[in-house]
Amino acid sequence: MRVRVRGGAHHRVVVVGGGQAGLALSHELVARGVDHLVLERESVAHEWRDGRWDAFTLVTPNWHCRLPGYAYDGPDPDGFMRRDEVYRWVRRYADTFDAPVAEGVAVTRLARREGGGFVVSTSAGVVTADVVVAAVGGYHRPVTPAWAGALPPGVVQVHSHRYRSADRLPPGPVLVVGTGQSGTQIAEDLLLAGREVHLAAGRAPRVARRYRGRDCMTWLAEMGVYDVPVAARGLAKRESTNHYVTGRDGGRDVDLRDFARRGMHLYGRATGVGLDASGAAAVTFAPTLAADLDHADAVAESIKDDIDRHVAAHGISAPVEARYTPVWRPDEEPSSLPVDRLAAVVWSVGFRADWSWLGPLAGAVLDDEGHPRHVRGLSPEPGLAFLGLPWQHTWGSGRFLGVADDARHLAEQVVAGGWAGPEPPAGAVSVPAGAVGG
Known about the structure:
It holds the Pfam family Pyr_redox_3. This protein is an alpha/beta fold.
């Protein structure tokens, strides 16, 4: 159910964010009879509609789509929903349990409340809560490099978050910077549209779409890889780039070497705007292409090694497949690309977190690098929690496949009234756990 914010109202829990993480927690709170309010700055699940390109598909099989009390039950469990299908699927979820969501309401500041709990300032008024859960993920502000400003004004620049299709860019060659999941898929989208594409590669790994008769991500789920806690892998994992692959046209590998064979121009890491050998302004590149292509292939092959060991250890009957053989290698490492040859640049270099709305509590709950400090979502500030972060507890935490477990855990902590987050940093103001009760 859609609700309005009542200024001055008090709630047991306020959930900030109406995406799949916030909705998953709302479902668990409804099931436990806990009074709560979900605040969504835009509209429910809007990022699935507004933050993806037209041909976007999931890269995980549809059967991975599991939220509390709600799982994909369509006709193609091993397929990959397109953008609008995912959006509708998540929107329907909110309706299945009448999630109390206030849409179009931005949280502007969070502060401690005298006597316990929190004061939540919003664009629709002020409410208070015993518990606040930030379910806004970790990708907030699109990033472009500082040197983007050195490109001439005639070159159109768009972040992958705003890219929609090839025909919305001006005619002419396009440079895509970054080879994570978005960058590689957008580069292919442009290539399939017949555009001249230049791609600046990075260190991102890749994974084969299928191996030994099954989707690789189905193998990984069966092997328990998505359940491995971040504590077993080290906190540096939360900075890792996801493996690139695509669900387009039923799913296939993304092989940059094959792109090159089909006419795409590949480069190493983009380093800035300088001068080429002729003295013309040009985007410059580091000589990293060959090494990065080899690295991506090595990761993909290592995953196949893991699958082979799993198959052998469990006596699984699975067809044997030939291993990957590189279909193209660079003859040289191009060092520059004249800017006057470019019509547009698509930046796919990530996002920066924005926790400014945490206000005076930010110092206590963020580390020196700006990452939330938490234990399974529980922050050092009793009553303040996080949900839906990449690698929050496991590799599956930021995905449909794993967010349900994290939501269930937080809901149980809310009901129990305890708080076992990390110790607050030296000098931080801490409030006794008893202040969270009620």
